[in-house]
Amino acid sequence: MDVRDDNDIDYILQVISNGTRRRILKLLADEAPLTYTKIMQKLNIKDSGTLGFHLKKMARLLRRDEFGEYKLSSLGWRALDIMKRLEGIEISEYEEASEEERKSRVFSDQLRFEYTRSLAEKLRGEGVKAIITDIITLIIHPMDRKLFDETVESISDVLTCYVPEDLYDDVVMKSSDV
Prior knowledge:
Layout: H1 3-16, H2 19-31, H3 36-42, H4 48-57, E1 62-64, E2 70-72, H5 74-87, H6 93-96, H7 99-102, E3 104-115, H8 117-126, E4 129-140, H9 145-151, E5 152-162, H10 168-173, E6 175-176
């Protein structure tokens, strides 16, 4: 396996870590070629920006034909194969998850998400940490640094992030691909 293969696998795993993108892969494998509008309709995606966000993340897995319709690229077919192999693993994620992993709540696949002080306080009261991922615009409201640190586990795949200056360093520490 060469470096290119490792990079491709890392990219594929990042793409298929999201449910919407897995659904897009399966749909195109079964019904391609499809227009942008048909993909939205078949997956019941109401906002074109959401689909655009996911298609951009999947760019290397897709190709467009002479009519502008989407199909899987050769790397897309490889991603589908990897995804199907992973789906065949019968170990329950919940049973294998550590106690710490069970104490998290995922906020994902949104055009705009606001992480407010009241939400952070609610999560702290429940003993839960936020995992914020696949958000186009993330707005973090002013709050105590300790409250933020205690209630946010990670931030990833965010296109634009607005954050109070005093929380900037904390956000950077919990972020990847922002």
